């Protein structure tokens, strides 16, 4: 096993000790999500085994994306490892900005990585980032509030049912919102959610000629439905809520339903962190009645090495450690199987210790049904579910999401937001030479 082998192989380095003048230090930029925070708690074990110190730069999601994108595109050299995802990995790999991970040792078992995750983090068959955890999105809901409302959650619900249930579970006097959803500006925050949702309403970002599609009935219905439901049953200030804000609300018992990353399941069911841990059920992300696509995405938070780092070998050792089967065993031994990083390895879902975890089956089902090659009802020229895998998308979608957030906050109408989104997107695509 990698941890045991690394421990034996690193004996000489360990004698030096992390405090030695010869100790090497790597700097890692990561997101402030729970699984990443947990990883930092165990990093001292990696240092003890290898003699390599780790300096963490932990950032909010939007800030992380901005910092690592700026650093790698300008060859700033601030980081030896970056936490990136399925949007960045193939684009940056194609550009030669990342170190290929094509020489991982046999005991790492790269073929154990779920095919959807391995494919999404590769370019032209070469892996450029190793998934720390993988995710889709699904519904997490309060079973007690659903029962109190006299309703039963279908495994495959429609948006119509979700809106009805959200209204029935809302209790303003007791500070309970029927539904909590992302509205925060940022292509990977509220932008990711509304894009995945739009797929389930039959919308798309572009037609086959790269023309923006925000002037269509499907997008108008998506945004109107979202804002109407959230105004009725969502928390105050939902236009500024992202993943972490909604996680906190749900754990405090202030949400009847939350549709978000499957990785959140371990946090909302953890009795040490969640006041409603024993009252949470799970269901597939919704779809509009008569539309086959669901509002679930596919993503991995993964570790990658920027080309040009002077510490490539040390960075690879850390990636091997943090994304290994042994790391999963380490977390399981200390914090239970429910808290291991999910969605990255096939072997986890074959492990008898994990099969009975309440959210395991729904997480895997959601991941497997996500299809980034065919993300929408009508054909599109891009790959990606909650994003379009083209370099220009991040900038365009960040601007578009800002217009949507302004509509959620009542600063402009849905029609105004969509008209601006149409213009922003078409102007950018024309300037980039797509049209």
CATH topology of the largest domain: D-Maltodextrin-Binding Protein, domain 2
Tell me the domain tally: 2
CATH-wise, what's the superfamily of the largest domain? Periplasmic binding protein-like II
Global outline? globular
Strand order of the largest sheet: 2-1-3-11-6
Q: What's the SSE pattern?
A: HHEHHEHEHHEEEEHHEHHHEHEEHHHHHH
The number of helices is 19
As a percent range, the share of strand residues is 5-15%
Mean pLDDT: 94
Label the CATH architecture of the largest domain.
3-Layer(aba) Sandwich
Q: How many β strands by DSSP?
A: 11
Helix residue percentage: 40-55%
Uncertain parts:
2-21
Biggest β-sheet, characterized?
5 strands, mixed
| Class by SSE composition | alpha/beta
CATH class of the largest domain: Alpha Beta
Radius of gyration: 22 Å
CA distance, first residue to last residue: 52 Å
Notable features of this structure?
4-stranded mixed sheet; D-Maltodextrin-Binding Protein, domain 2; 435 residues; 5-stranded mixed sheet
Q: Please, could you describe this protein's structure?
A:
- By secondary structure, the protein is an alpha/beta fold.
- The chain has 2 domains: 2-135 and 298-350, D-Maltodextrin-Binding Protein, domain 2 (3-Layer(aba) Sandwich); 137-296 and 380-431, Periplasmic binding protein-like II (D-Maltodextrin-Binding Protein, domain 2), CATH 3.40.190.10.
- Helices cover 42% and strands 13% of the residues.
- The protein has helices at residues 2-9, 11-16, 34-41, 43-50, 61-73, 88-94, 115-120, 143-148, 159-169, 190-199, 217-233, 243-251, 265-268, 312-322, 325-335, 346-350, 360-369, 393-408, 414-431; strands at residues 24-31, 52-59, 81-84, 122-123, 126-127, 130-135, 137-142, 177-180, 255-261, 280-284, 299-304.
- It has a 5-stranded mixed beta sheet.
- Strand 4 and strand 5 (126-127) form a beta hairpin.
- The chain is globular.
- The chain starts with a helix and ends with a helix.
- Mean pLDDT is 94; it is low at 2-21.
